[in-house]
Amino acid sequence: MRHLVITIGCEYGAKGNAIGRKIAEDLNIKFYNRDLVDEIIEEVGIPKEIMEKVEEGGTIAGKGAEGDVRGSFSKYADLTDRAIHVQKQIIRKLAEKESCVIIGRSADYILKDTKDIDLLRAFIYAPDEVRIHNIMESHNLSEKDAKILLLEKDKRYHKRHLALTGSNRGDRHNRDILMNSSYLGIEGTAEYLEELIRRKFGSEEE
Amino acid sequence: MRHLVITIGCEYGAKGNAIGRKIAEDLNIKFYNRDLVDEIIEEVGIPKEIMEKVEEGGTIAGKGAEGDVRGSFSKYADLTDRAIHVQKQIIRKLAEKESCVIIGRSADYILKDTKDIDLLRAFIYAPDEVRIHNIMESHNLSEKDAKILLLEKDKRYHKRHLALTGSNRGDRHNRDILMNSSYLGIEGTAEYLEELIRRKFGSEEE
Asked: What SUPFAM superfamilies does its record include (chains A, B) (predicted)?
């Protein structure tokens, strides 16, 4: 049976998580944010610290190549490969199981050739000043600290996406639509994306 | 009086022109494609050949710096600056005058700080295989020739955009929305963008 999977990549602070949560609520389907995906990955035996190392992508190989003996480098690389493999498998399993919204974790890339689901791959971004404002509000940070966090997260997410997909983060070619969330706001953007789903797949409930 | 201006940047072969034309027809507003903008620029005294050189952006300075004497390089640079200035002025005038759709010509960047108009800045893209198919059909070309044209146009548009705006072409941060035109098709994409305009600015006719 075909069902609907919406992947939402987003810039840190652009409110992609809130938009995805509202879409899942409105359509009454499952919602997997980053933490939930990570928890499932941990359940099948890849510890969070390994996934965090995987997040840093390029850096791992770099470290190994520089300092470690050949043996431990290979072991480390295997573990990385395994973690990436597990992440891909789990995203695919979640998508196959039932209608859902999946935030981040390169799900757009992982699912790009999937044929048996109705798929919408969205990316949410916003001007830096809006993201900084959002981060200040969400985490009760000063403007200066919000900017530091923004830069750090951009760098980290970008590296991770590049390591996993070989393409730049936010690359439009892995997405069906990219939206500036400050144009219509959180609720407006969610509803406009729901409208896209209706236009593409009809309004039939699962 | 506020009115509506829609700028549509697009990848060659992604059907942004056809989408823009349909939006202008449906909303009954002016439609300026690239050629029309160029004609107006030519009318005010910047010959087409100069605008074409301006299109090549970086290349001009490169040539001057390599081979020409300092005097002629300066003259050339002045002319380039003037042509860019005129293009910016004309895009601004068109946008100030009345509701319209403007295709390409970095109008999204030129109008980014305009306050007196209702502005939607869209970018249309599509997978390479779809673009190649579109180019083959529009220009009656073989697949091989369509690919050559695609690569050449991508390179040229990218250079031009970089020269004029300092940012990469397709950079999401100068746009409110980026859409893969093959997701809903030409008519579907146009209608979905009209829906965005209604949601943002209401359905009031001018």
From this structure: P-loop containing nucleoside triphosphate hydrolases (SSF52540)
* Residue B75 binned pLDDT confidence (cut-offs 50, 70, 90): low
Which of A178, A50, A58 shows the shortest CA–CA distance to B180? Answer: A178
pLDDT in tens, A23-34: 999 999 999 998
Which residue among B175, B184, B199 sits closest to A192, beta carbon to beta carbon?
B199
User: How far apart, in whole angstroms, are the C-alpha atoms of residue B22 and residue A134?
Assistant: 36
What is the tens place of the pLDDT at every residue in A107-158? 988 998 888 899 999 999 999 999 999 999 999 999 999 999 999 998 888 8
Q: What is the number of H-type helices and E-type strands within chain B?
A: 9, 5
Predicted local confidence at residue A1, as pLDDT? 64
For residue A88, what are its two tokens? 């891909």
- Residues linked to residue B118 through DSSP beta bridges, in sequence order: B4
Q: Are the beta carbons of A178 and B176 separated by less than 8 Å? A: no
Q: Which residue of B has its CA nearest to A120?
A: B183
Taking an 8 Å cut-off on Cβ atoms, the answer to whether A127 and B173 are in contact is yes
Which of B178, B192, B195 is the closest to A178 by Cβ?
Answer: B178
pLDDT digits (tens, 9 = 90+) for A41-94: 888 777 777 766 666 654 444 333 333 434 444 455 666 777 778 888 889 999
**Is it true that domain B4-201 has CATH number 2.40.440.10?**
no
The residue-averaged pLDDT of B172-181 equals 92
pLDDT reported for residue A170: 67
* Residue spans per domain, chain B: 4-201
Match domain A4-47+89-201 to its CATH number in 3.40.930.10, 3.40.50.300, 3.40.50.2300, 1.10.10.410: 3.40.50.300
Strand partners, A177: A122, B179
Of A170, A178, A199, the CB nearest to B177: A178
Best residue of A118, A121, A128, A196 to probe chain B, by most B CBs closer than 10 Å: A196
Residue A171: how many other CB atoms lie within 10 Å: 19
Nearest to B104, CA basis, from B8, B6, B4: B8
Q: Touching check for B12 and chain A: CB below 8 Å?
A: no
Structure tokens, B60? 């001009």
